[in-house]
Amino acid sequence: MTAQQRLEEAQARVAALQAEACGLAEQMHQALKDGDNDKYLRLMAREHAIPRDLGSLEADVRDLRLRVTRERYQALADAEPGLRARYEETVRRNREKIAAIEAES
């Protein structure tokens, strides 16, 4: 599976979790109206797990976006002479800038 496919899959999982969170709120409200405390507690436990799951997936999406971008640049660099050197120089300068910013904070 390519990085692009993994990215699309991760983005779909993020959207599904967000939709699940919306649905849980409605289900919890209905469980309270019905007086079904056990169901309410199960739904509440799931609701509390969603931010953790969502945070992990969003981190995966960020990493995959970077990987996809890196792969695209790499493919361009491999296809065009001279572009590779400019790409590597840009990467080096960006790493230096990031290191400087991190050193300041």
Mean pLDDT across all residues, rounded?
89
End-to-end span in angstroms? 38 Å
Poorly predicted regions: none
Query: Any idea what the shape is?
Result: elongated
* Largest sheet, strands/sense/barrel: none
Strand/helix succession:
HHH
Structural class: mainly alpha
Strand percentage, roughly?
Answer: under 5%
Count of extended strands = 0
Give the proportion of residues in helices. over 70%
Characterization of the model:
With 105 residues, this protein is mainly α. The chain has one domain. It is built from 3 helices and no strands. It has helices at 3-34, 37-79, 83-104. The longest helix has 43 residues, at 37-79.
Layout of strands and helices, then pairs:
Blueprint: H1 3-34, H2 37-79, H3 83-104
Helix pairs in contact: 1-2, 2-3
Which descriptors apply to this entry?
105 residues; mainly alpha; 3 helices; 92% helix
Quick synopsis:
The chain is an all-alpha fold and 105 residues long.
